[in-house]
Amino acid sequence: MQRFIKSVGAVILLSSFSSLADPVSELENLVNQWLQIEQQTSELETHWLEKKTSMQQTLILLDAEQTQLKQLNQNRQKNTSELAEKRTALIQKQSELEADENALNSQLIQLSQQLRSLQVQLPPPLLASWQSIGDLDNESLDANEKLQIALKMLGQLADFQNRISIHEMAISNSEGKEIWVKQLYLGAAQAWFVSNDLSYAGIGFPSELGWQWQFDTEIDREQIAHGIAVQEKKQAAHWLTLPVFSYAAKELTP
User: Distance (Å, rounded) from C-alpha 141 to C-alpha 155?
Assistant: First the structure.
């Protein structure tokens, strides 16, 4: 697979957070949009629960009252008619709330589809965390349970994106050999890795084909190792120079 990567030198202070790539901005927009939806959802759920309980209690009381009225005086047709009208009005309101709930379910389905489409581009540690939260495709879950899963996923995305993190895993090189490396993640759109003996190093980044790891023989391995050591509080912090890659400049072809 051929990659066209535009690399620029950037001085990064590990205690600072740099602006992220276009897909991350899209993820931030999605977070903001979903927070608005979540606020509306919370209000709708509260309204629905309150109205549902109230209507159920009212219907029980109306049924009891109607029975008593029939027993006391069968001739009070007017009162019976009024009670029937109230009951009809309450049933209509319940139907309206159920329609609102159906609209919420449709929005939740759309959000779930967007989250699933993002999974392939996530850094491996974040993807593993998402998979441990739950399955949005699980048909046994109700709308509220799926909503909680989606909110946890968005929360983990926001947390990962706003910090520098260290992880370890094996990466296969071009020869198919697995190399154990430490990874330095700058949010969810940029990563560097280096082996313990500094023999291998490279970068990681999201793409339309998924998260990509690329070995680079020219990258400054000592700088990456030092950055990891600083984050692990094994060395004192100072200015580092690491390559930052523009997502828009990446093009992966078979």
Answer: 20
* First CA to last CA distance, the chain: 4
The helix/strand count (H/E) of the chain reads as 5, 9
Interaxial angle between packed helices 143-161 and 124-133, expressed in degrees from 0 to 180 and rounded to the nearest 10 = 160
- What tens digit of pLDDT does each residue of 122-164 get? 999 999 999 999 888 888 888 888 889 999 999 999 999 998 9
Contact 205, 212 (CB under 8 A): yes
Model pTM above 0.70:
no
User: How many angstroms separate the CA atoms of 115 and 234, rounded?
Assistant: 36
CA distance 200 to 166: 17
3-state DSSP assignment of residue 190: coil
Query: Within the chain, which residues score under 50 in pLDDT?
Result: 1-21, 246-254
Total count of residues recorded for the chain = 254
215 phi/psi in degrees, rounded to 5? -75, 145
Alpha carbons 242 and 203: distance in angstroms, whole number: 10
- Residue 245 amino acid letter: F
Closest CA to 161 of 24, 4, 42, 66: 24
Residue 78: other Cβ atoms inside 10 A: 8
Host H or E run for residue 202: strand 201-205
Rounded Cα–Cα distance for residues 4 and 102 (Å): 46
**3-state DSSP assignment of residue 10:** strand
Instruction: Measure the CA–CA gap between 184 and 204, rounded to whole angstroms.
Output: 9
